[in-house]
């Protein structure tokens, strides 16, 4: 399992173009055949557009499942909406 710490990209993760950029960087850096955990430690807010561009593609490559670590209530709420919209299963740690 590989853990991606999203705080390195900011504490406010918003915007579709920024999400596309970050996913492109992460896809080049991490082996997408290995299970990915997204760590939201230190991330204060997540925009649904950013989440759709980063969380959804990783989850789809893992059978529509993703593990999320240390999401605060605001981030968790956004992730739950994304999960509902894209039929994803999220394991919160």
What key phrases describe this protein's structure?
single chain; 93 residues; alpha/beta; four-stranded parallel beta sheet; two-stranded parallel ribbon; 3 helices; globular
Describe this protein's structure:
With 93 residues, the protein is α/β, with parallel strands linked by helices. It has one domain. Helix content is 44%, strand content 23%. It has helices spanning 16-29, 48-60, 73-86, and strands at residues 2-5, 12-13, 36-39, 45-46, 65-69, 89-92. The strands form 2 sheets. A 4-stranded parallel beta sheet has the order 1-3-5-6. A two-stranded parallel sheet has the order 2-4. α2 (48-60) packs across α3. The longest helix is centred in the first third of the chain and has 14 residues, at 16-29. The radius of gyration is 12 Å and the shape is globular.
In short:
The chain has about 90 residues and is of the alpha/beta class. It has one domain (about 1-90). The protein is about 45% helix and about 25% strand.
């Amino acid at each position: 399992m590989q853990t991606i710490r999203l705080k390195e990209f900011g504490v406010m993760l918003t915007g579709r173009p920024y999400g596309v950029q970050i996913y492109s960087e992460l896809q080049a850096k991490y082996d997408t055949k290995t299970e990915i955990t997204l760590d939201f430690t230190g991330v204060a807010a997540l925009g649904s557009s950013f989440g759709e561009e980063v969380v959804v593609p990783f989850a789809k490559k893992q059978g529509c499942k993703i593990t999320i670590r240390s999401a605060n209530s605001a981030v968790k709420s956004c992730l739950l909406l994304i999960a509902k919209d894209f039929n994803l299963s999220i394991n919160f740690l």
